Structures are given as C-alpha cells and as structure tokens.
Structure prediction request, 247 residues.
Amino acid sequence: MSKVFEPLLARLPCNRTGRDYIIGDIHGHFGRVEQALERIGFDTKRDRLICVGDLVDRGPESPRALDWLTQPWFHAVMGNHDAAILHREGYLSAKFELFTGAHDWFDALSSTQRRSLADALAALPWALELETADGVVGVVHAEVPERFASWGNFTARLDDIDLLAQIVSNRYQARRAADFDAPDRGDLAPLADVDWVIHGHTPRRGCRPGRLGNRLWIDTMGWRDEPVEIGSPCFTLIDARHPLTPL
Prediction:
C-alpha cells in the first residue's frame, strides 16, 4: 500500500531579500551542516537552504530532521532513505524498501517520535521548482528519467508511483556525469523548461560535484566518517543562481 502525501511538487518563489543555497544529502549530520552554513555566512532571516533529499540514516543526528523541517528557511525533497522510513511505517509500498540496517536509530525512538518524524517526512515533495532571478532550478533526489524531454512533462507525471520510485533510486545518469571542470560529454540532451536540475543520491567519486548537460550531482559525502581513496568528503553547497561554482 502506498500513501503519497501532497504536494508532489513544491514551488518556491524568487527570494528577493537573500540567497538560495542547495546542499547534498545530509544523512543525519545536521551539526556538520550548521558548520558549513556558518562558513558561508548563512542568514536564517534572509536566506533559504534546500536539500536534495536523504535527511536521515547513517549519521547520529537523524532525529533532528524533525526540528529542521519546522524551520521556514529549510526545504528538502524526498530521498530514498527518507522514503524507506515511510515504507517502514506503512506509508509506502515495498518499492521503497531499503535492505539495510541503517534504521536502528529509528526503531529506538518512541512510537510517538516515530510517527511525528514519519508524518514530517511524508510531507516532503518529490520534486521542487525554485524560481531565481536568472531562471528556474529544479531539485530531484536521484534523476529525471531520460524519457522526459522537459521539466514540465516530468512534473506532470509525478502521480505515477513507479516514477517516484525511479526518481529517488536511479543512478544511470549519475554514473555518466563528469566533474564540473571536465568537458561536457554531450551524451544527454538538456532538460527543457528548466535551467538546471540538482541531484544527490549517488556519492561522487573523488568528492567532486558532477555534471551531465544541465543536470548536476552534488553528494560529495559530507556525511561520511571514513576516509575515501580519492578526495576529501565534504558537504557541497551551491548558490542556486550560480550552480557551477561550489562554495
């Protein structure tokens, strides 16, 4: 049984007083995110932060997602780990199950805490459309499948549960994405009706954001505790108006 809450698509109007930042998967490391926001001078009275999904699992502060989702300056889309919690609570079908032990922290919560957090996660949109002074930026956790030529065609089909499972889980495009400073491979036509689409989900090898056409992947593993073979795990923050310049 699947119980998908509204809105499927969230639309944020242009921020006329501050800046809009987008961050990769948080995975229960909100303290590290706070440090990253302090570094860039984030102002909660003027600025907004949008996460590409996966607020929970892996890190020790996953329950803090509930508090963050009450903040007017914080927004996020559904990630596969968020959806897996909803499956665990009976909101979503087995299409969204994760075969992982990453949910021990959730099982340790009281029944009231579990339901409150699940309700908050259930209210996450599956895609977000952000208006900026320079154009429209979309946010989707994993990818927009290639069968959609335009952002509008894609968002019009978000009532399809099979599509929702794909956009939080697929990795086909992310595996082809090149580093920002590498030449565009040109093997994927730009998605029409949108300037950029920002994704997370697939950890970037080398901890460097990746690009394929007008689609960007920014999960550079700021949630990771262990060292990696190449690069240094960090949270990538981008200004929505200048997405090719990580901060």
In short: Helices lie at 30-40, 65-68, 80-88, 104-107, 111-122, 151-155, 161-169. Residues 18-239 form a domain with the Purple Acid Phosphatase; chain A, domain 2 fold (CATH 3.60.21.10). Residues 83 and 145 are 19 Å apart (CA to CA).
